[in-house]
Amino acid sequence: MIRAFLELRAIHKSFDNAGGRLQQFLGVPLCLPNCGICCECNTPYTTTIEGILAVSWLIGTGKLSVMLSLIEGWLLDKDPSLTIYEGMPIGNSRQELVNEWHLAIRSRCPFLDSEKRCIIHAVRPLACRAYGVTRD
Q: How far apart (Å, rounded) are the C-alpha atoms in residues 136 and 127?
């Protein structure tokens, strides 16, 4: 597990360095403080190791209860365009489930607080670190 965390840290550092170089080249910040525009319509994919790192970091910084409250709100605020709240949809095609999943991940990120700050910015997933640095 420690090896996985060390490798993840190296990957994070690579993305952060690339972002810093791009930001310096462009002469403008890639991410503006308290903006949250990209986080208003994206819920990032994460790996298991990224999830463990985020939870560990939240526990270590004393922010776990704040995060649990935000996650609970995110889970309980029903999006009117989704039907997945009724349990596993029986009889739906695989494509219907994929479409539903794509709608769900385009919702507001649960890690974005009311001041539009990322609660887990220090340990944010690779998907977030890559935003603005890569084409995807």
A: 9
85 CB-near residues (< 8 Å, 6+ apart): 78
User: 2-6, 25-29, 88-92 — which is least confidently predicted?
Assistant: 88-92
Could you give the CA distance from residue 46 to residue 48 in angstroms, rounded to a whole number?
7
What is residue 86's predicted lDDT score, i.e. its pLDDT?
60
Question: Which spans in 2-131 are helix H?
Answer: 2-26, 48-61, 64-76, 94-105, 126-130
The tens digit of pLDDT for each residue in 64-74 reads 988 888 777 77
- pTM, two decimal places: 0.72
To which residue do tokens 């887990």 refer? 120
